[in-house]
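Worked example 3. Consider a protein that binds UFG.
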Amino acid sequence: MSILVTGGAGYIGSHTVKQLREKGYEVVVYDSIEDGHEEAVFDTTLVVGSILDEIKLDETIKKYKIEDVIHFAAYSIVGESIVCPQKYYRNNVLGTLSLLDSMIRNNIKKIVFSSTAAVYGEPERLPIVEESCKNPTNVYGKTKLMIENIMEDYHKAYGLQYVSLRYFNASGADPSGLIGEDHHPETHLIPIIFETLLGKREYLSIFGTDYNTPDGTCIRDYIHVNDLGKAHILALEALSNKLDSGIYNLGNGNGFSIHEVIQSVERVTGQKVPLREEGRRVGDPAMLIASADRAKKDLNWYPDYTKLDDIIETAWEWHRKNKWGFQRRKNK
Ligand code: UFG
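Given these inputs, the predicted complex is written out as structure tokens:
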């Protein structure tokens, strides 16, 4: 009996797979390896395939006697989702429908789904609770919200049990230094700061300094990738016990501006970050801060990494040892 982890070779997926294996679970990773990295799953069974391929999904589920699913596989670049909506609706929404239908055909009832704070858009009130208004400002967030709605309907009609985890800003890396964040192209703040320190970029562009925040830059709630991984396992375990289904925010409940993130990096590395102030990036909300009270109460989920410097420290360990990401290992 195994857990199928779609997108298990990606950033958050690979950290979750590592923890699942350490806890003794049998895991099968299903990943297209378009954005994920084979090297990130080590000796875990890897099936290379698209979530749009129902035949391959059926074969995999039968062959490995899959019991539960953790579903990460998705395109996730916010800017790209706005210019290529077709790519995002097809893969994220249609691909998830194909996965859910394959689960139902094979009598699999439990799924933990990777959702996002992007479902909320610009929040009316902080901290954001699960009932807050959902008004995604980009296609990526819309695809995740559509999938949550589909899962709710499948829950009512077919008895699917689901947990949807809305992550705020995933960051950091496993302290082993063996896996970490490696996106192409990289769009996220923390890895871009490190790319600058490692000489891969000339400077960090700060997107917008005129927001209605104390220092004018955007505020985000940074949550360690291993704390996200831990939440997936707790969610799956809860579904096997008493939990029927649910939707949960995952964040630390603290907001940090871009300048505060830069200061944290400078404290941790002892280096000065070269930067330039630029205009706003389209679709960036000014402030996103989570209330994760529901996850604490229902899942008994408490983040281990509550200090930004500690999160940044683990990310720096990974980036400094793997300047070229997983590519460096391939070329060795
Ligand atoms: N930023 C910069 N310069 C950069 C990169 C980012 O100033 O080079 C800024 C952004 O404008 C934003 C902040 O840093 O204000 C954080 O940006 P990220 O791209 O790291 O993260 P986002 O908050 O945009 O995105 C995250 C997740 C998405 C999710 C979104 C929800 O990564 O998957 O939160 O809003 F959709």
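Take a moment to read the result before moving on. Residues 85-105 form the longest helix (21 residues). The pocket of UFG is lined by residues 76, 78, 116-118, 140-141, 169, 187-189, 192, 204-207, 218, 220, 258, 281, 284, 288 (CB under 6 Å).
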